[in-house]
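Notes from the 1:1 (GR / supervisor)

We went over the backlog. Supervisor wanted to see one worked example end to end before approving the batch request, so GR pasted a single chain during the call. The sequence is below; no edits were made to it. Supervisor asked that the structure be written out right there so they could see what the output format looks like.
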Amino acid sequence: MDETERNIPIIDVGSRLRVLRQERGMSMRAVARASGLSTNALSMIERGRTSPSVSTLYKIADALGVPITAFFRVEIPRQDVVFRKLDQRRRVAFPRGVWEDLGGEAFTGGVEPFMLTLEPGASSGRFGMLHSGHELVICMAGMLEYEVEDNRYLLHPGDSLLFAAQLRHRWRNAGKSTTQAAIVLTCFERGESPSEFHALHLAEDELEMDPPEKPF
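Structure output shown during the call:
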């Protein structure tokens, strides 16, 4: 990614950690003991003095008893019309990609659109995901490979893919340049936030130690 992409705003993980910890009535010492991290390290994260790795977030999430997506979930009032300027998108940056919300978190209807920006080799990991609803994928730049059940689809700019999201699926940047894709999720079950599945799998990609099988 270029320097502009590296400097995009991200969710304040430290503030979310403090809120989640206080909601559960846990002291910093208790979270440190349950996560295996030092109290000083947790304090640095809460005060925004350091950015935790995804593996560290997994340890903290386990200690708090929450999914890792809780660190970037934001509850805001729902609206019938949602307008977002480019610099107002909620963004979560990971080592090999960026997840950007396109207003679904504020919309009263059952649709969640988001953008994925993926560096070469970034993927949703070796295990597929599945969730309720329908999934529309539009490749905006680069090459995006999607696997749905046993079928693989290679998307170039302008190509689209539509499928039932309860079919197991995964994706990866199949090219040598940055890939960008718009994804729209609809008709999912009430109370579910399927876009977070994709953000979570992007986070898990950092923990993937073995190279994926070809072509995945």
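Supervisor's comment: Residues 1 and 119 are 7 Å apart (CA to CA).
Batch request approved.
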